[in-house]
Amino acid sequence: xxxxxxxxxxRIACLLVAAQIAGCGSGSGSDSSAGAAGGSANxxxxxxxxPTATVGPTCSGxxxxxxxxxxxxxxxxxxxxxxxxxxNGYRSQKGLAPYYLQSTSTEAVCCQAAEAKTAAxxxxxxxxxxxxxxxxxxxGGRGPxxxxxxxxxxxxxxxxxEGPAAPGSANHYTAMMExxxxxxxxxxxxxxxxxxxxxxxxx
Length: 203
Known about the structure:
5 helices, eight-stranded mixed β-sheet
């Protein structure tokens, strides 16, 4: 009886030790959980512990081009596809054919991101080397509940609200509502929560 009880106690002790060891091992890398980044499968954790989903290239002088799901306060964000959808929504209200995404190449994405960074630094249009024919710019800060998505929603809305330009002139509405489909790219760059830009390039 005593022997049986001793064997039972030894088995319980072994189970407890095994559980402790398993618990110590399972904590490694737990900060890399994908759930906080909108389900992205490619998540890195920065020094503050905020998930940063990188989907684009790392561009010289700009850094990694992040996904909208990361919703960062600082850095470049790939917003082209989402921005394109918003603009095409306004175009559809006027019965216009949709615009298309100009390019997904590393060179094009990096050029776009660099222009968004320059625009954020200057607080205005960025006259870069991306080969566009027209450019729209929006800038400002993000409120307490502001997101990259909300900022991108806001920018084409402003362009649309400008309405048609006076005869013989052009404005943001003109570029967004051309009758013939054209390629576009959009990028967001945040210097801080209080200073960011969105650049829409029309090709």
